[in-house]
Amino acid sequence: MKKRLVFWIAVSLFIAGAVSLLASNHPDGYEKAGEQLGFIDRATTYLHSPLPDYAIPGVHSWLSTSLSGILGVAITFVLFLLLGKMAGKRR
Amino acid sequence: MHIPDGILSPAILAAGAAVSVVVLAKSVQESKRNLEQTAVPIMGVMAAFIFAAQMVNFPLLGAAASGHLIGGALAAYLFGFWPTTLIMTTVVTIQAVVFQDGGISVLGVNILNMAILAPLAATVVYKLLQKTKVPVSVMIFIAGWVSVVVTAGFAALQLGASQVVSYQLALQTLILWHAIIGIGEGVITVAVVPFARRSSFFLGGREERLR
């Protein structure tokens, strides 16, 4: 099972670190509807995140998105392990 | 489908957060009873995979718009509804806190939409279709599509209830775009499940029960 988990993490890192560079920059369905209906102008931000819009502030190259994606995969996996450990059955 | 700050009314934000808290409390209760520790790393890699896949916006051909996977139908097929809410909540929360994708004041509503309603809609489709003769891949495609369209429908109702736009316009516009995006959700979900199956990513005989 361990090998399979490593495989899935590797695939996830590849998608978030490389395939993500090919992602479309067009607005998503919600934003697009918001443009058409005029409500997206109300959008604002109450919390300034460390990596806004999957980019490292100040870094202007593909590395910015790529590293953000890799970090995101790592954070998601680790956080879920902690959460799962707490929420799951006691051994 | 990640709603930013500043759009929905405070009452809707509070209502969404309250519903999410109640459902997630129940999810944790379910996990304490049923979730084996050996399953946690498997669900963890699926959370990481869904995070990664959500980064890849696919263009909607012929329109200046894009869509991306939610992943609720995928996780619900593999793990069932309750564990999926924990996986999706982890993803949606990290997106809001670390990446400013989805407003922090809307976190409760975004969790309700993507971590609860999307997998719930998919789970209902699985329950309805598992006893029919519909091929598994068709069932999974339908569940993926329905999960996106239902979620868009609720997002539209939240806009209407916040008096941002009329219910009718919100429903028409959001459902139209997400009826297209849902095709992507269905296709990706159908494509990924066989790989998860090969890795035995099912919780204790779930797939047999589903058939």
UniProtKB/TrEMBL annotation, chain A:
It comes from the Bacteria. Residues 3-87 form the PDGLE domain. The keyword Secreted does not apply. InterPro entries: PDGLE_dom. GO terms for cellular component: plasma membrane. This is PDGLE domain-containing protein. Keywords: Cell membrane, Membrane, Signal, Transmembrane, Transmembrane helix. The chain crosses the membrane at residues 62-83. Pfam families: PDGLE. It comes from Neobacillus vireti LMG 21834. It is found in: Cell membrane. Its main location: membrane. Residues 1-23 form the signal peptide.
From TrEMBL, chain B:
PANTHER family: METAL TRANSPORT PROTEIN HI_1621-RELATED. The chain crosses the membrane at residues 41-62, 74-98, 104-129, 136-155, 175-196. It is found in: Cell membrane. The lineage of its organism: Bacteria, Bacillati, Bacillota, Bacilli, Bacillales. The keyword Transmembrane helix applies. GO terms for biological process: transition metal ion transport. Keywords: Cell membrane, Membrane, Transmembrane, Transmembrane helix, Transport. InterPro entries: CbiM/NikMN (IPR002751). GO terms for cellular component: plasma membrane. It comes from Neobacillus vireti LMG 21834. It is a multi-pass membrane protein. This is Cobalamin (Vitamin B12) biosynthesis protein CbiM.
